[in-house]
Amino acid sequence: MATAIVAAHLAGASCLLIVFPGAAAAGVALLVALLGAVTAWERALHRGRGSVRCLELRDGGAALLELADGRRLAGTVAVRRNVNRWWVTLPLHGKSRRIVVVTREMVPPGDFRRLRIWALWGRLPSAAAAGVSP
């Protein structure tokens, strides 16, 4: 994820240099590249104070986020979610409107599978909810 973020910002910086040659464009391109590095550091590598450290999903689509600085934010997960084999996106509504992206490398495989099922169906199968491993 961090590589993709940095690559996209570097591509944008390169486009700026191609379209607007000159010192001003070089300065803006450098700022765009630095923005990519900072975004990757905070969002993809989870090193920022506002990075999500824990995501707790509850019945009815309620979610509780614990951030790196110790704050806890409550919200609800929107119905529109993106689920595939590599990641799950959970748009949150509430005090903090953000989109939480969970990739399959972030959690153990069984937990990621349960998260994907929850994101698709809004609930877990009864065996998984009872703690029974399939």
How would you describe this structure in keywords?
2 domains; 134 residues; alpha+beta; elongated
Structural summary, described in words:
The chain is an alpha+beta fold. It folds into 2 domains: 2-44; 52-129. It has helices at residues 2-19, 23-44, 109-121, 126-129, and strands at 52-57, 62-67, 72-77, 82-83, 87-94, 98-103. Strands 1, 2, 3, 4, 5 and 6 form a 6-stranded antiparallel beta sheet that branches. Strand 5 and strand 6 (98-103) form a beta hairpin. Helix 1 runs antiparallel to helix 2 (23-44). The chain is elongated, with a radius of gyration of 18 Å. The model has no long low-confidence stretch (mean pLDDT 86).
Number of H/I helices: 4
Number of DSSP-assigned strands: 6
Rg of Cα set: 18 Å
- Globally, the shape reads elongated
Q: What is the end-to-end distance? A: 30 Å
Total domains:
2
Label the structural class.
alpha+beta
Low-confidence stretches: none
Report the biggest beta sheet as strand number plus sense, adding barrel if it closes.
6 strands, antiparallel
Give the oligomeric state: single chain
Note the run of SSEs as H and E. HHEEEEEEHH
Mean pLDDT: 86
- As a percent range, the share of strand residues is 25-35%
Please outline what is shown here.
This protein has 134 residues and is an alpha+beta fold.
Record the SSE blueprint.
Layout: H1 2-19, H2 23-44, E1 52-57, E2 62-67, E3 72-77, E4 82-83, E5 87-94, E6 98-103, H3 109-121, H4 126-129
Antiparallel strand pairs: 1-2, 2-3, 3-5, 4-5, 5-6
Helix pairs in contact: 1-2
